[in-house]
Amino acid sequence: MTTPSQGRKSRVDRFGARLRARGATLSPRLKVVADYINENRRAVLGQSALEIAAETGTSDATVIRAVQALGFDGLRDLKRTLAGFLGEVISSVDKMSATTEELTRDVDASIDFVRAGHLAGIEQVTKPENRRAIAAAIELMRGGAGIGLFGIGASAIIADYAARLLVRNGRHAYALNRTGIALGEQLLAMRRGDVLVMMGQASAHREGAATLEEARRLDVPMILLTGSASPAFGRQARVVIHVPRGKSETVPLHGLVLMCIEMLVFGLAATEPERSVRSLERLHTLYEDIRKPPRGV
To answer: Which of 163, 208, 246, 274 has the lowest CB atom count within 10 Å?
Structure first.
């Protein structure tokens, strides 16, 4: 059976060859774009010229000029070339098929698959460099007037849960987890002085780019939780926390993302325990008020 990496060996890296041949002739701004594409090839397959511009601090016109300076007709031609070398992006159907084939319809194998993934991930999450990143993130959140939590797909549920935990502990927090134009209404909640916690991976998307653009406009620092070695929004992050999600060719595990979110929430609560206690006491008073029968009944 041919693996994706074995298949790539027989393909010609046209982009790499052109970058080596022409890279020295590029202006500094064009070189920034070319280097970003080279370092984030799979992410670029799903990005527009505007999104690449946002990642590189350039303009969409500069992105197109860089692509053409490397000998491609345009961004679409470049993407066809990259896709031909990398192979197609692994779909969720393929990932589930690979996962179920690995588990061979065995319940014990399924238990061990999830257990092994989480145990290996815990080792990564709790490494010294990640502990320092988590501590830096908590300090950043502590100084924030509010905390926005961005996540779409499965991470949207975690964003809601995290916002509820933070509110219970006396923090102003809100989820940024809708897709399409519905996200715009949520972004109205973001204020100068807030902190953004973003759950993101290698691929960029319009929602993430729009959220970061608003954060940039308001000078809101971003904390990134990612399992990718080359995350799409890594350059914009003030703090990056690496959260592995299992093997790239199998179904991703989200438990470690949830665990890391809880590390942040409870670590933040531990820095100001009185604030959390006051908020929870107020919450229980509200619970009692809600349970009271209406007057006159």
So the answer is: 274
